[in-house]
Design brief:
The protein has helices at residues 33-67, 93-100, 122-139, 153-163. By secondary structure, it is mostly helical. The longest helix is centred in the first third of the chain and has 35 residues, at 33-67. The chain is elongated, with a radius of gyration of 43 Å. The chain is 41% helix and 0% strand. The protein contains 4 helices and no strands.
Length: 177
């Protein structure tokens, strides 16, 4: 059938130790170093070119956005704010609080302009808000004119303890009328 000296199974590696060729040290068909080098250089050039193309495209988009006027239907910055009451740190929250709470209107003013200086710091807003809440709890809430109505919580507790809680009259069987 075949002229090979291999008598083993088909999947076994044949013994080729008897083949001797002293002239051959490197087989040219194994690896093409020049082709790999060309591929790596080409890949690097394409990466650099795509980087500069993307950079140019983003610059073009950025300049186009700056040139394009806003639509007349677009909302202004003030209109984009969420409705009142806003969460802490929302722009304009402390400014609105300063207009309605008389204690906040007494902020120190700038000597150069004579206008009130209001820091735009979230910690400042938290401090002012806590002071406002403490004032409401200690002295009762105030309306827009600054006039106090209601009563502080501690005073309300004392009055309830003095007078007792109002109770509905009950019948003999325990039902309320």
């Amino acid at each position: 059938m075949s002229n090979s000296k291999h008598n083993g199974h088909v999947t076994e590696t044949p013994d080729v130790s008897y083949i001797k060729n002293a002239d051959v040290t490197h087989e040219v068909s194994d690896v093409h170093i020049s082709a790999i080098a060309k591929f790596v250089v080409g890949l690097f050039v394409l990466m650099v070119a795509s980087f500069f193309l993307m950079w140019g495209m983003f610059r073009a988009f950025e300049s186009k956005i700056k040139e394009t006027p806003a639509s007349p239907m677009a909302l202004t910055d003030k209109e984009r704010l969420p409705p009142e009451p806003r969460l802490q740190g929302a722009p304009g929250f402390a400014e609105g609080l300063g207009k309605t709470v008389p204690a906040l209107k007494k902020e120190e003013s700038s000597p150069a302009t004579g206008k009130e200086t209001v820091p735009k710091d979230a910690l400042w807003e938290i401090k002012i808000l806590r002071e406002h809440w403490k004032d409401v709890l200690d002295h009762g809430p105030a309306d827009q004119s600054g006039k106090r109505y209601g009563m502080p919580i501690e005073k309300a507790k004392e009055e309830i303890l003095k007078q007792g809680l109002p109770v509905r009259p009950q019948t003999a069987d325990g039902r309320t009328q």
